[in-house]
Design goal:
heterodimer, A: alpha/beta, ABC transporter transmembrane region fold, Rossmann fold, 6-stranded mixed sheet, 4-stranded antiparallel sheet, 63% helix, elongated, B: alpha/beta, 22 helices, 10 strands
C-alpha cells in the first residue's frame, strides 16, 4: 500500500497525539454537558432495548403459528411489536433532539478556543503559516469533528444493541451463538486492518485539500497581478497540477473507504450462510425451534450492520480524530511571545528602555545584538536607517508582536513581559505602512480600537487630520463602505484612516511605521501640523524614510545593522556631517528638480 | 465567429476546457456527469445486481425454512425435495454464491461512483477557478475572499458527497425498496398491501421531512460561509487586531457568527429528530406480519413464504433509515451546486475579445472625454479626462490622495471599463483590442505590490509564465537594481517571499516588481510610485531602476518626486477626478496655484 503513503508535508506545529490523549481531551469538552450526556445515554440504552425486542417478538410469533397456537396471542404480539416500534422511535427522537444541542455547544466551544488560540499567537506564527490553512482548521476541521461525535453516538447505540442481542441469543442456544460470533473477529479484524491506512490517507487528503484551498486563496488575493500580466494561463496550469494531485489522493482515500463496506458485507453474507446451514440442521433435529432459528438468521442482519458500522465508523472516526488533532495542534502551538505575568498595566508615562536586547526573526539573521536605547516619557524619537537596519523591529518589539531572545525591554521601569498584553496594547498605537482595513464603513474602521466612540468623536478625529480635506475624496465621507482589506481605497486613504484610528485610540505610546509614506505631499504637510500637537503629549517612535517628516523629532536615532551609529537633534546631526547628513542630502537631492540619475 | 458570440463573457478562456450547462444546479451536475458515462453505467449495473442478490437472500432463507417446516406441515415442497439435509446444503451454497456475487457487484459500483464523485469535485473546482480567473476586477473587488473560499472549498466538497455517498446510497435505497417489493409481489400479490401502504406514506413523510430540512440546511450553510468570512478577515488583519488590542471584539464577532451557526445546526437536528419513516416501517412490519399470519392460517401461503416475506420486509428497514441522510446529502450537494453556479453565472462586464485587434503596440495613448464611475448610482470618480501620450512619452500624474490618479491608470488595461468617452491606443478604441494582446503589452506596477508566496525568481518570471531562463531573470533583476539585495538572502533567487517566506521592504518589493515588468518588455507602462522616498539610502538604486524601465515606453507615472516630474514630458494635475491643469512642470509652477502649493516647499 506504499502508494497510499506518499508523503504530504504536515505543518510544523502538527504533533502526534495518542488516541487516548485525544479522547480524553474531547471528553473534557463534554463535561459541561453531563446532564444531557446522561439523558442521551439513557435514551440510547432504551432505544437499543426496543430494537432488540422487535425481532424477538417476531420470532415468538413464528413459534406460535408453527405450534398452531390460538390467534389471540398473535394479536397481543402484534400489539407489542407496534408498541416497541413506537417507543423505539420516541426514545430516538429525544436522543437526537438533545444530541444536536450538545454537539452544537461543544463545537461552539471548540471554535471559540481555536479562535482565541489563533488570536493569541504572535506575528511569527502568521509569518510562517498561510492564513488559508489557519482558517480551514478553525472552521472546517471543527465541522468534521462534529460529524464524528454524532457518528460515535450512533456507534455506541449499535454496539449496545449487539451486546443485548448476543446476550439473548446465548440464553437460547449457546452453540449457534458462538457460530454467529465467529464472524465477528473477522469483521472487526478487517475493520482494524483498514484503520491505519484510512487514517493516513485521510490526513493526506485533507492536507492536500488545504493546499488546493491555499492556492485558490492566493490567486484570488493576487488576481490583479495575474490580470495585469495576462498570466491567467500560468496560474491556471499551476492550479490544475495541485487540483489533480488532490484528486489522486482523494480517489485513493475513496477506494480505501469504499472497499471496506463490500468486504464486510461479504463476511456477513458468509455468516448468514453458516447460520442457515447449522441452524437448519439443528432445526431438522428439533434441537431448536423454527422461531429461534429465524431469530438467529435475523440477528445476523441486526448483527453485521452495527459491526460494519464499526468499520465504516473507524474511517469516519479517524477522519474526525485527525480533524480534532489538527484543531488541538493549532490550540497547543507554542506561543513564542510569552508573558511571564499579567499585571494590569497602569496608565503609562511612556518611558521605554531597551537593555542589551538580542533579537532575530529566523535562525539565520540576527537583527539586534545587544541593543541599548532609552526613550524618555513624552519624547518623540525618529528612527532612520537603511532597509533592514532594524527600525521596524524595534517598533514590533515594543508592541510585543515578536519575542526577543535576550536582554530586557522596560516600559516605565517594568519588564514589558509582566504586563497583561491587552491592557498594555490598549495604551499603544501603531500605524503600519500598509494598514489593514476591515469590511464596514470608514467610520467603523476609525472606531475599531474604541468601539464605544461616538460619531462626534470619530468626526473630530477625522477633521483633525489635514483639516479633514481627505474626507472630501471619499464618495460618502465617513460612511463610505470599505471592502475587505481596504479594497476600493487608495493606499494614501488607507493610511489616513489608520492614522485616525490610532489617534482616536489616544495611546500613551505611538509608533508610526512609515505611516504616511503613501500620502501626497500636500496632505502630508497638513498631517504634520496635526501630528505635532498630538505628539507633544505622548511618547512617539517615528520610523520614516521621508526625512522631511522627522526634522522636528526631539531626537533622531540613526541605525545601521541593528546598532545606533548616530543620535541627536536634526541640527546637531547635520552639524556633525556624518551618516545622517549624507542621508539627508541624498534625500533632498532626489527631491530637487536638478537631480539627475547617474 | 457566431459560436464565439454565444459564449458568456470572460477575460480568460481555455480552448480545451469542457463546457457545462450552467442553467440550473441539476442540469449543471448532469452535464458534469455526462463526461463519465461508462463509470456511471458500471455503477448502475453493479448497484442493481447487488440489490437483486440482496433480495434473493431472504428468499433462500424462506426456502430453507420451508424445508425445515416441511417436516411437520404438509407441503408440496417437502415431497419435491427428497432429502432435507441435501436441500439445506444446496441453499447454503447458493447463499455463499450470492455473497460472492454481491461482493463483486458492490465493489464495482462503489469504486465507479467513488471515481465519478471525486472527478466531479475536481472538475467543479477547475471550472470555478477558470471562471474566477475570467471575471473582471470589478467583480473581484466586490467579493469577500472568505466567501469565495467557502464556495471553492466546501460547496465543491458537498457536490462530491452528493454523489458519494449521497446519490450512491439514494439509488441503493430506491433499488432496496423496488426489488424486495417486486419479490414480495411474486410470493403473493396480497402481501403487497403492507409494503405499498408503507411506500405511500413514506413518500409523503420524506417529502415533509425534506421541506422542513431545506430552509434549515440552507441556513446552516450560509451561516458557515459568514463565519468563515469573519474569521478570514480577522486572520488577515491580525496585525491591526493585535495593535488595537481588539482580540475581544474579534472574538465577539466570531462568536456571534459561530453561535448563529450553532443555532441553525440545532434547528437542523430538531428536524432530523422528527424523521418519520423509521416509525412507518415499524408499523408496516407489524401490519404485514399480522396479514401474513392471517393468510398462513387460511392456508393461502406456506411457512417458507411467510419467512421470506418477513425477511424482505426487514430489508425495507434499510431504505427507510437511509433516506434520513441520502436526500439530505443530495440536497446539500444541489444547494452547494446552486451556490457555485451563483458565482459561475455572475455576469462579468469584460470579455477577452478573442476576435479583437491583435497587433504590436506603438504606444500612442489617447484619453477622450473619459469618465468613470464604479456603480450606476455613484458619482463620477473621473470626469471628462482628455490627454494624449505619444509613443515613448512619460506623463506624470500628480494630485491629492484619493483624487483618482490610480483609478485613471486602471482604465488603460481595462481593469475597469470607461463609463463615458473613450480611450484608444494606436488609434483604436481599447475595447476593440484583443484582451490578451492589450494586457500583455501593458504593465502595471502597482503601489501596493502583491508578490506570490514563492521564490523571488518565480515572482520575477511570473509575467512570462516562468518561460524564461535564469540568466534573463538575473539580468532583469540587475537592471532593476534588485540583484544585490536578492543575493544577500541565504537562498538567493530561490528565497521564498510573501506570506510563507521572507518579508520584503517596500523598496525591495518595488524593485522586484520592476524586474518582473522589465522581463515582459511592455510598450505601455503604468508605474504607481506615490510611495515617495521609500528608502533614502536605496533611493539612487530605485531611481536608476525606474529610469531604466521608462526608457522607450509610453509611461503613466504617478509620483510626487520632483526629479521625476521635471523629466516628464507632461504633467497632469488631478483634483477630485478632473484634470485641473496640464503642461510641463515649469508651466504649471507658473500657472497653477494648487500645483505651487503642493510643490512650493520642495523648491529650495
Amino acid at each position: 500500500m506504499g502508494f497510499i503513503m506518499d508523503g504530504i508535508d504536515a505543518e510544523a506545529y502538527d504533533r502526534q497525539y495518542s488516541d487516548r490523549q485525544l479522547m480524553r481531551r474531547i471528553g473534557r469538552y463534554f463535561r459541561p454537558q453531563v446532564g444531557r450526556v446522561v439523558l442521551i445515554t439513557g435514551m440510547i440504552v432504551l432505544n437499543a432495548l426496543m430494537d432488540m425486542v422487535l425481532p424477538v417478538l417476531i420470532s415468538q410469533g413464528i413459534d406460535e403459528i408453527t405450534g398452531n397456537q390460538a390467534t389471540t396471542a398473535i394479536n397481543t404480539l402484534v400489539f407489542l411489536i407496534l408498541a416497541a416500534t413506537v417507543l423505539s422511535w420516541g426514545f430516538n427522537f429525544v436522543r437526537q433532539w438533545y444530541t444536536a444541542r450538545s454537539v452544537g455547544d461543544v463545537v461552539l466551544q471548540l471554535r471559540s478556543d481555536a479562535f482565541t488560540a489563533v488570536m493569541s499567537r504572535d506575528m511569527s506564527f502568521y509569518d510562517e503559516f498561510p492564513s488559508g490553512k489557519i482558517v480551514s482548521r478553525v472552521t472546517s476541521d471543527t465541522q468534521d469533528f462534529s460529524n464524528v461525535v454524532t457518528l460515535t453516538l450512533n456507534l455506541i447505540s449499535q454496539v449496545l444493541l449487539v451486546i443485548l442481542i448476543v446476550g439473548y441469543l446465548f440464553s437460547i442456544n449457546a452453540r449457534l451463538t458462538w457460530l454467529a460470533l465467529a464472524m465477528a473477529p473477522l469483521i472487526v479484524g478487517a475493520a482494524l486492518a483498514f484503520r491505519r491506512v484510512a487514517r493516513r490517507t485521510t490526513q493526506q487528503a485533507q492536507r492536500l485539500l488545504a493546499t488546493v484551498n491555499a492556492n485558490v486563496q492566493e490567486t484570488i488575493s493576487g488576481i490583479s497581478v495575474a490580470k495585469n500580466f495576462r498570466q491567467e494561463q500560468t496560474v491556471y496550469d499551476e492550479f490544475t497540477d495541485v487540483n489533480e494531485q488532490a484528486y489522486q489522493v482523494q480517489v485513493r482515500q475513496g477506494f480505501v473507504f469504499s472497499a471496506i463496506f463490500p468486504i464486510l458485507v461479504f463476511i456477513a453474507g458468509l455468516g448468514t450462510a453458516v447460520i442457515v446451514y447449522f441452524g437448519g440442521t439443528q432445526a431438522l433435529d428439533g434441537s431448536i425451534t423454527p422461531g429461534d432459528w429465524f431469530l438467529f438468521v435475523q440477528a445476523m442482519s441486526l448483527f453485521w450492520f452495527p459491526l460494519t458500522g464499526i468499520a465504516s465508523f473507524w474511517s469516519q472516526f479517524q477522519l474526525g480524530l485527525a480533524s480534532s488533532e489538527r484543531v488541538f495542534a493549532l490550540i497547543d502551538a507554542e506561543a513564542r511571545v510569552v508573558q511571564i505575568d499579567n499585571q494590569p498595566t497602569p496608565p503609562l508615562d511612556g518611558r521605554i528602555e531597551f537593555r542589551n536586547v538580542h533579537f532575530r526573526y529566523t535562525e539565520q539573521e540576527q537583527v539586534l545584538n545587544g541593543f541599548n536605547l532609552t526613550i524618555e516619557a513624552g519624547e518623540t524619537i525618529a528612527l532612520v536607517g537603511h532597509t533592514g537596519a532594524g527600525k521596524s523591529s524595534l517598533g514590533r518589539l515594543i508592541a510585543r508582536f515578536y519575542e526577543f531572545q535576550g536582554g530586557q525591554l522596560l516600559v516605565d521601569g517594568h519588564d514589558v513581559r509582566c504586563f497583561d498584553l491587552d491592557s498594555y496594547r490598549r495604551q499603544l498605537g501603531i500605524v503600519p505602512q500598509s494598514p489593514f482595513l476591515f469590511t464596514g464603513t470608514v467610520a467603523d474602521n476609525i472606531r475599531y480600537a474604541r468601539p464605544e466612540a461616538t460619531d462626534t468623536d470619530v468626526r473630530q478625529v477625522a477633521q483633525s487630520i489635514g483639516h479633514g480635506d481627505w474626507l472630501e475624496t471619499l464618495p460618502q465621507g465617513l460612511d463610505t463602505a470599505v471592502g475587505e482589506g481596504g479594497r476600493g481605497l487608495s493606499m494614501g486613504q488607507r493610511q489616513l484612516i489608520a492614522l485616525a484610528r490610532v489617534l482616536l485610540q489616544d495611546p500613551a505610546i505611538l509608533i508610526l511605521d512609515e505611516a504616511t509614506a503613501s500620502v501626497d505631499p500636500l496632505a502630508e504637510a497638513q498631517i504634520q501640523e496635526g501630528l505635532e500637537t498630538v505628539l507633544t503629549e505622548r511618547t512617539a517612535v517615528i520610523i520614516a524614510h521621508r526625512l522631511s517628516t522627522i526634522k522636528h523629532a526631539d531626537r533622531i536615532i540613526v541605525l545601521q545593522q541593528g546598532e545606533i551609529i548616530e543620535e541627536g537633534s536634526h541640527a546637531s546631526l547635520m552639524a556633525r556631517r556624518g551618516h545622517y547628513a549624507d542621508l539627508y542630502d541624498a534625500y533632498f537631492r532626489h527631491q530637487s528638480p536638478d537631480y539627475e540619475v547617474a | 465567429m457566431a459560436a464565439q458570440i454565444a459564449l458568456p463573457k470572460t477575460e480568460f478562456r481555455v480552448e480545451s476546457a469542457p463546457t457545462y450547462n450552467q442553467t440550473s444546479p441539476i442540469r449543471w451536475v448532469v452535464s458534469h456527469l455526462a463526461r463519465y458515462k461508462l463509470l456511471l453505467a458500471a455503477f448502475f449495473v453493479g448497484m442493481t445486481v447487488t440489490n437483486i442478490f440482496n433480495a434473493a437472500i431472504p428468499r433462500q432463507i424462506g426456502a430453507a425454512f420451508g424445508v425445515v417446516a416441511g417436516e411437520t406441515a404438509t407441503d408440496a415442497a417437502a415431497s419435491a425435495v427428497p432429502d432435507p439435509y441435501y436441500a439445506i446444503v444446496l441453499i447454503t451454497l447458493t447463499l455463499v454464491g450470492l455473497a460472492v456475487g454481491r461482493f463483486f457487484c458492490d465493489a464495482l459500483a462503489s469504486f465507479s461512483m467513488e471515481m465519478v464523485a471525486k472527478r466531479l469535485e475536481r472538475d467543479g473546482r477547475d471550472e470555478l477557478y477558470l471562471n474566477l480567473l475570467g471575471k473582471s476586477q470589478t467583480f473581484h473587488n466586490q467579493q469577500r475572499v472568505g466567501d469565495i473560499m467557502a464556495r471553492a472549498a466546501n460547496d465543491v466538497r458537498f457536490v462530491n458527497e452528493m454523489m458519494m455517498p449521497g446519490f450512491s446510497l439514494l439509488y441503493d435505497s430506491m433499488m432496496a425498496i423496488f426489488i424486495p417489493i417486486l419479490f414480495i409481489g411474486f410470493i403473493d400479490p396480497r402481501l403487497l398491501l403492507a409494503p405499498l401502504t408503507f411506500c405511500f406514506f413514506y413518500y409523503f413523510a420524506v417529502r415533509l421531512y425534506m421541506r422542513q430540512l431545506e430552509p434549515v440546511s440552507e441556513q446552516v450553510r450560509t451561516r458557515f460561509g459568514d463565519m468563515n468570512a469573519t474569521l478570514n478577515e480577522a486572520v488577515t488583519g491580525i496585525e491591526v487586531v493585535k495593535a488595537a488590542s481588539q482580540d475581544k471584539q474579534e472574538l465577539g464577532k466570531f462568536l456571534r457568527d459561530a453561535r448563529l451557526y450553532r443555532d441553525a445546526f440545532v434547528k437542523e437536528g430538531e428536524v432530523q429528530a422528527r424523521y418519520l419513516p423509521t416509525l412507518l416501517i415499524g408499523i408496516a412490519i407489524a401490519g404485514g406480519f399480522l396479514q401474513a399470519v392471517y393468510l398462513y392460517n387460511l392456508g393461502e401461503i406456506s411457512i417458507g413464504d411467510l419467512i421470506a416475506f418477513m425477511g424482505l420486509m426487514w430489508v425495507l428497514r434499510w431504505p427507510a433509515f437511509s433516506s434520513f441522510f441520502t436526500f439530505y446529502l443530495v440536497q446539500m450537494g444541489l444547494a452547494g451546486a446552486g451556490r457555485i453556479l451563483e458565482l459561475l453565472q455572475a455576469k462579468t462586464e469584460l470579455d477577452e475579445n478573442a476576435a479583437g485587434h491583435v497587433a504590436p503596440m506603438r504606444g500612442e495613448l489617447v484619453f477622450e472625454n473619459v469618465s468613470f464611475r464604479h456603480f450606476d448610482n455613484g458619482r463620477d470618480l473621473l470626469h471628462n479626462i482628455s490627454f494624449t501620450a505619444r509613443p515613448g512619452e512619460t506623463i506624470a500624474i500628480v494630485g491629492q490622495t484619493g483624487s483618482g490618479k490610480t483609478t485613471l491608470t486602471k482604465l488603460v488595461n481595462r481593469t475597469y471599463d470607461v463609463t463615458g468617452g473613450r480611450i484608444s491606443i494606436d488609434g483604436r478604441d481599447i475595447r476593440d483590442w484583443n484582451m490578451h494582446s492589450l494586457r500583455s503589452q501593458i504593465s502595471i506596477i502597482e503601489q501596493d505590490i502583491f508578490l506570490f508566496s514563492r521564490s523571488v525568481a518565480e515572482n520575477i518570471a511570473f509575467g512570462l509564465g516562468q518561460q524564461v531562463s535564469r540568466e534573463d531573470i538575473i539580468r532583469a533583476a540587475k537592471e532593476a537594481q534588485a540583484h544585490q539585495f536578492i543575493m544577500n538572502f541565504k537562498d538567493g533567487y530561490d528565497t521564498i517571499v510573501g506570506e510563507r517566506g521572507v518579508t520584503l521592504s517596500g523598496g525591495q518589493r518595488q524593485r522586484i516588481a520592476i524586474a518582473r515588468a522589465l522581463l515582459t518588455d511592455p510598450r505601455i507602462l503604468i508605474l504607481d510610485d506615490a510611495t515617495s522616498a521609500v528608502d533614502s539610502a536605496t533611493e539612487d538604486e530605485i531611481q536608476k531602476a525606474i529610469k531604466r524601465i521608462l526608457e522607450g515606453r509610453t509611461t503613466l507615472l504617478i509620483t510626487h518626486r520632483l526629479s521625476q516630474i521635471r523629466r516628464a514630458d507632461r504633467v497632469l494635475l488631478i483634483r477630485q477626478g478632473e484634470i485641473v491643469a496640464q503642461g510641463t512642470h515649469h508651466e504649471l509652477m507658473a500657472t497653477s496655484d494648487l500645483y505651487q502649493r503642493i510643490f512650493a516647499r520642495y523648491d529650495i
